[in-house]
Design a protein that fits this description.
431 residues; Chloramphenicol Acetyltransferase; 3 domains; 7-stranded mixed beta sheet; extended
Length: 431
């Protein structure tokens, strides 16, 4: 009996997809529910499982083909297991099944859990300053190459230009390094980049569906919303201290590290409840005020930026927020996000600080009306009660749709977030 492989329902407003790659070849045996083909949609990549156990007998749509929901992708022929084959299987000694074990290697551009990396950096910043009698000295310039004493002129050029002598071969007698050798080295034209050598002067690559969607939505946000950004700064001293004093107990009790995002999620929800316009959206000539709080948060992946949603965040504890953010971020990192993970957000938090951003103007995630931008924490001099003090400061940015949110509301909203972050104990009192 033959079974068709069909394109499943892809989610709200998604009618077509691109066949990214077949995970099996014609003639391969597959098991029921085993992924056999990967589809790329505007938002996520989906794996289509096999409907039955059998043999992949036909592949109709090739890689790169655009298909609609319900389209015929291929066919699977159901096969049975003969008695002889069953007997042979029984005689095989049990071994450890390794087909589903994935060994991943660390990648340079691997997306990081936004709040965790920032938390680790803060732990390093919290180390106390220790005064020592250590005397720092200038690095000593090598005066010999292959047991050859360098001339004063050569040593001067080496010192001024920080030249690595290990990479130079002298042209003088017995390999002696001469001034001319260094001048020739310094006059050489720089070599072309590795990408230029590998791909030529230019390279042309078709945009992925995800990148096309990101570009389209960002352009729509600029064209359809009256974008404006307001800024403020927040003293992170008390949050750092609270994390430092309670980190071990928190981790032992809940099995998760107390990061930074839970504080920002909690502070944002308090402000959203007080300023409902920031949690609303415009639809036609109507304003839809949402009395639920689904917080979208940006996660960078090697395929582009995705914005999964932390749903019903207002009823979550600090531990629940941290656990759910980690779980969702891991799914984004492994390409396992579903359509449901990306839908339903009412307000967005973007943390560019993990990449070292000092200040930015985030763009709205339509149809939402507000997005909060977090940045890196830097020790800066501030005046407190007439005295100059050094404090860990973070710049905050709130981009908002001026059609629905007035300037007074936006400034007051961001000020309330600042107040709750600087006095984080207020978050536990819901004030």
């Amino acid at each position: 009996m033959s079974e068709k492989i069909l394109v499943p329902v892809l989610g709200e407003s998604i009618t077509e997809a691109t066949v990214s790659k077949w995970l099996k070849n014609e003639g391969d045996e597959v098991k029921a529910d085993e992924p056999i083909v990967e589809l790329e949609t505007d938002k996520v990549n989906l794996e289509v499982p096999s409907p039955i156990t059998g043999k992949l007998t036909e592949i109709i749509t090739k890689n790169g083909s655009v298909v609609e929901v319900g389209a015929h992708l291929g066919s699977i022929e159901e096969i049975g297991i003969s008695e002889e084959k069953s007997q042979k299987i029984e005689k095989i000694k049990p071994t450890v099944k390794r087909e589903n074990i994935e060994i991943s290697e660390p990648q340079q551009n691997e997306p990081q859990l936004l709040e965790t990396e920032l938390a680790d950096k803060l732990d390093e910043q919290e180390q106390p300053l220790v005064l020592t009698k250590e005397v720092k000295t200038k690095p000593i310039i090598k005066e010999k190459l292959n047991d050859q004493v360098l001339s004063p002129a050569v040593r001067k050029i080496v010192a001024e230009n920080k030249i690595n002598l290990e990479t130079i071969k002298g042209s003088g007698k017995d390999g002696r390094l001469l001034k001319g050798d260094l001048m020739s080295l310094m006059s050489k034209n720089p070599s072309p980049s590795e990408r230029k050598i590998k791909y030529g002067q230019e390279e042309r690559i078709k945009m992925t569906r995800l990148r096309q969607t990101i570009a389209k939505r960002l352009k729509q946000a600029q064209e359809n919303a009256a974008l404006l950004t307001t800024f403020n700064e927040v003293d992170m001293t008390n949050i750092i201290e609270m994390r430092k004093n309670n980190q071990d107990d928190f981790q032992n009790r809940f099995g998760i590290k107390l990061g930074m995002m839970s504080f920002f999620v909690k502070a944002s929800i308090v402000a959203l409840k007080n300023f409902p316009a920031v949690n609303a959206e415009i639809e036609g000539d109507e304003i839809i005020y949402k009395n639920y709080y689904n917080i979208s948060f940006a996660v960078g992946t090697d395929k582009g930026l995705v914005v999964p949603v932390l749903k019903d965040a207002d009823v979550m504890s600090f531990a629940d927020i941290e656990k759910n953010i980690k779980e969702i971020s891991d799914k984004a990192k492994n390409g396992k996000l579903t359509i449901e993970d990306l839908q339903g957000g009412t307000f967005t938090i973007s943390n560019g600080g993990v990449y070292g951003s000092m200040l930015s103007t985030p763009i709205l995630n339509l149809p939402q009306s507000g997005v909060l931008g977090m940045h890196n924490i830097v020790e800066r001099p501030v005046v407190i009660e007439g005295e100059i003090m050094v404090r860990p400061i973070m710049y905050l940015a709130l981009s908002y749709d001026h059609r629905i949110i007035d300037g007074k509301e936006s400034v007051s909203f961001l000020k309330m977030i600042k107040e709750n972050l600087e006095e984080p104990r207020r978050l536990f009192l819901d004030i």
